Amino acid sequence: MVEVFGNLMFWTAVSFLILVLLLGRYGFKPLAEILASRERKIRESLEGAENARLEAERLLREYEEKLAEARAEAQKFIAEGKSLGENLRAEIMQKSEEEAKRMIAKAEEQINRDVDQAIKELRAEVATLSIDLASKVIEKELNQNTHEELIDKYLSEVGRF
Amino acid sequence: MEGINLAHLGSGLAIGLGALGPGVGVGLLVGKALEGMARQPEMAGKLQVAMFIGIAIAESIALYSFVIAILLFTK
Amino acid sequence: MQQIFNEFNLRPESQGGHGERIFEVINLEPINHFIRSLHLPIDVTINKAVVMMWLSAIVAFALIYYAGHGRGLVARGLKNAMEAIFQFVKLDIVEEQLGHAGQSYLPFVGGLFFFILFNNLLGLIPAGFSAGSNLSVTATLAGMVLIVIIYTGIKNQGPLRYWVNLAPGGLPKPLYVLMYPIEFISLLSKPFSLAVRLFANLLAGHIVIFSMLTLMFLFGLWLAPVSLAVATAIYAFEIFVAFMQAYIFTILTSVYLGQALHPEH
């Protein structure tokens, strides 16, 4: 136990050194490589999963953006249609109002014209009638040309009624 | 009684007395280490390594006396 | 009691003149007779400790080789266990203590770990013999550790500076007269304590198991259940000790190597 054995020391040194050489050359390297490659692979797959998650999130955000865009577009279309209808309605109303005004004006004009015509005709009639009457009354042929003044005076008196 | 050998007595005393100090030491060491681990669980790994090294060093004192005991016993 | 010690004694005359036997079957005497007839300058006769040492080295290398040369990245069973132990040695012992520069010490420290571990474990199988329970073996290992420590220190700090750095700097000059012998003795005591610790742990474990079993025959067979139970418990504890001692031997080696690599200024 406690005494020195030369053969044991020799064999310990030899077998230990051979073991260290063998392990250093053939034992540890492949094992370390396997462990390193497994670590790499796990890290890679974790990174891949992370990337896929980020990609999916990005896509989701994109779709949401597109959806919001489409919704806004639809809203815009509806608003546009509404305003178009409003405009159309206003235009039509304005047009019809104008038409009505125009028609009223036309009617007024016509009425005025008719009244004028009637007055004119009436005046002519009155003139002839009054001439007739006057000629009958004074029994004297009045010359229309020479007594224009008189006629006008008379007419203005008639027009006052 | 025949065959009573003072070397045997010395051997027993050597291992008995020699184990006394390291026993107390290892107890203190582990107790303190556990205290530290309970206080800072995130340091448990480092504390454990340091604890084992300390135990080994404390224990080796007992083992020296064990070797002396064997030397005396087989004398 | 003397028989128990004889079990661990490797002197040829303690074997009762029948020659060395391993596993109580194979007789090594003819081989030794042949070796002695060669008249080599050093004693290279083999005994059961030597054979167990070969066995442990072969088993260690075979298992690591097996673990490193498999197909596929997913390991299971024994391979997984070897990978876990290797990873532990690599990360928690070598890289923890020596940093990344310690990669080149991995074969030495890992070899120490597996050699000691399988030596201890083979000593635990029935009729096996732990080569580590002999001081010559552990002293040789510790001596190699000392050589590697001094070599590392000289290589990293230069032949003169290593010896200068042995003592911590910044002390009053006369104290160095005292410090250098103390530090030198402490340097030598490192491998000494490594060797004695490993040897004494293994020997103590085996002796305690044998003593427990001997109690059975000393006090009569009615004690058999108790002594068998205690011996089994200690046996289980010995398996833990086998790992523990391999771990402590290697981690202390790494700590000493780390001190030689990165000296405190």
How does the SSE layout of this entry go?
The complex is a heterotrimer of chains A (about 160), B (about 80) and C (about 260).
Chain A (H helix, E strand, L loop, with lengths): L5 H133 L9 H12 L2
Chain B lengths: L5 H34 L4 H30 L2
Helix pairs in contact in B: 1-2
Chain C lengths: L1 H7 L12 E2 L3 E2 L1 H9 L10 H21 L9 H21 L7 H19 L10 H23 L1 H7 L7 H47 L4 H38 L4
Antiparallel strand pairs in C: 1-2
Helix pairs in contact in C: 3-4, 3-5, 4-5, 4-9, 5-9, 6-7, 6-8, 6-9, 8-9
Put the structure in a nutshell:
The complex is a heterotrimer of chains A (161), B (75) and C (265). Chain B is mostly helical.
Give your account of this protein's structure.
The complex is a heterotrimer of chains A (161), B (75) and C (265). With 161 residues, chain A is mostly helical. Chain A has one domain. Chain A contains two helices and no strands. The longest helix of chain A is centred in the middle third of the chain and has 133 residues. The radius of gyration of chain B is 17 Å and the shape is elongated. In chain B, 85% of the residues lie in helices and 0% in strands. Chain B is mostly helical and 75 residues long. The mean pLDDT of chain B is 85. Chain B has a domain of 49 residues. Chain C has 265 residues and is mainly α. Chain C has one domain. Chain C has a two-stranded antiparallel sheet. In chain C, strand 1 and strand 2 form a beta hairpin. In chain C, helix 3 crosses helix 4, helix 4 packs across helix 9 and helix 5 runs antiparallel to helix 9. Chain C is globular and about 70 Å long. Chain C starts with a helix and ends with a helix. Chains in contact: A-B, A-C, B-C. Chains B and C meet through helix 2 of B and helix 8 and helix 9 of C.
Tell me which protein chains meet in the greatest interface and how many residues each side has: A-C, 36 and 50 residues
Specify the oligomeric state.
Answer: heterotrimer
> Which ranges of chain A are low-confidence, i.e. pLDDT below 50, for 5 or more consecutive residues?
none
* Largest sheet data of chain C: 2 strands, antiparallel
Q: How many alpha or pi helices of chain A?
A: 2
- Amino-to-carboxy terminus distance of chain A: 164 Å
Strand content of chain A: under 5%
Question: What structural class do you assign from the helix and strand content of chain A?
Answer: mainly alpha
What spatial form of chain C do the alpha-carbon principal axes imply?
Answer: globular
Mean pLDDT of chain A: 84
Task: Report mean pLDDT of chain C, rounded to a whole number.
Answer: 79
Radius of gyration of chain A: 61 Å
SS element count, helices of chain C:
9
Task: Give the structural class of chain C.
Answer: mainly alpha
Helix share, percent of chain C: over 70%
